[in-house]
Amino acid sequence: MQLENKKVLALVDHDFEDLELWYPVLRLREEGAQVDLVGKEANHKYIGKYGVPVESDFAFTDVNDADYDAILVPGGWAPDKLRRFPEVLDMVRNMNQAKKPIGQICHAGWVLISANILNGKTVTSTPGIKDDMTNAGATWVDEPVVVDEHLVSSRRPPDLPDYLREFINVLANK
Fold it and tell me: Tell me, what DSSP letter sits at residue 3?
């Protein structure tokens, strides 16, 4: 278990992409990490795009990102909601400033765009937000997973094995 003693924030809101939240959460827990699910409200049930629920452990205002080693942003339609919370953008900016691993897949790039941390970075995402990513100053590539320092990005659910392999490696080496 290469992630023992690692703590990860996983952001949640309604309409998250079910696999893009649950697959990373389960893989990280398999590797020994503590993964806390964080949403607007604590102990609230959020429903994924395909109906899979998740209950948040904490509210955004309940956590101190400095206590965590990494942050995960799932895709789906949730990122368009998540990026509207100043607390979420502050968490992402703080993780970026501290060079802690940030994982983003599919539409999750919207949160990183709103946090204004992509300028000069090489990333991937769902092709549907390619223009958004490049307009934010990133170099976009069509690859299953891209690692640029502490930032790990991926395109869509079929890429999850590659995404988690790289995210786990980056987190284990921090």
Answer: T
